[in-house]
Amino acid sequence: MLLKYQVKKIWNDPVKNFICFLVLFFPCLEIIYNLFDLISTENHVLRPEFMCFLVGSSTRLSHVFQSIVLWFFPLYSLLLTAEDCIEERKTGIRNIVIAKEGKKKYIKSHLYKSFIFSFLLIMLMLLINMALVYIIFAGGKTPMYDDMMLSLRTDNLLWACKNGLLVNFIYIIITAAICGLISMVGTISAIMLVDRKIVYGITMLFWFAPTFLSKSLLYVFQPFTEYSLSFVAPTIIGVFVVYILYISGWYVKEVCFDKKSI
């Protein structure tokens, strides 16, 4: 009931609806740009699996659209799912809800809301993009790599290029899951730390720090590169473990050790 109420608050907020619209719109904007670019340059059309949003290889601006959505997703998620926590603290609504529902249920509902909403938003965005790409560019026949280039690449890349639809779907699920977790990081920070500067700074730090690793988080979001999932698996596991430990640590501290009302 509490989770349903919190999700309803997002849907009833026009600013948050606009943010959701922007997130869903940018991959569609990339498709429109790709169409105009192909018409104006008369380039060969890549096979649909290589035109999807995460691939970022269809045109010279693909990485720009990708960056706007993925690099800054923590900001969108904070505005969508974490701002409520800060506002409820300032208005005193949080204490009222805790008195009625309990601290554990209050925190859990916000965390569930953050993960589910962000996960589904990114999943919907990428699945809509993939469906449109497979429809609009259905006639594309050009592979991303020619036979000579493929012969110099790894067996994993060769397998990925032969199973494009499956690979895209796997990367979509992983991307959505990581976006859901960073949203939870922002939400638990907002519940516990309250100060916007600290909350936004910590969340962005958690998001960008893994991108500086040798096995960068950025490789996790981009299929059909020389960096296979097995190569970036330590980064994926590490991100999941660190995010979950951070979220769980704050949760356990507040629910089990701090008996005061938050």
TrEMBL record:
- Give the top-rank taxon of the lineage listed in the UniProt record for this protein: Bacteria
> Know the name of this protein?
ABC-2 family transporter protein
Keywords (alphabetical) are: Membrane, Transmembrane, Transmembrane helix
Against InterPro entries, the record matches this protein to:
DUF2705
Q: Which residues cross the membrane?
A: 18-36, 64-82, 114-137, 157-186, 198-221, 227-252
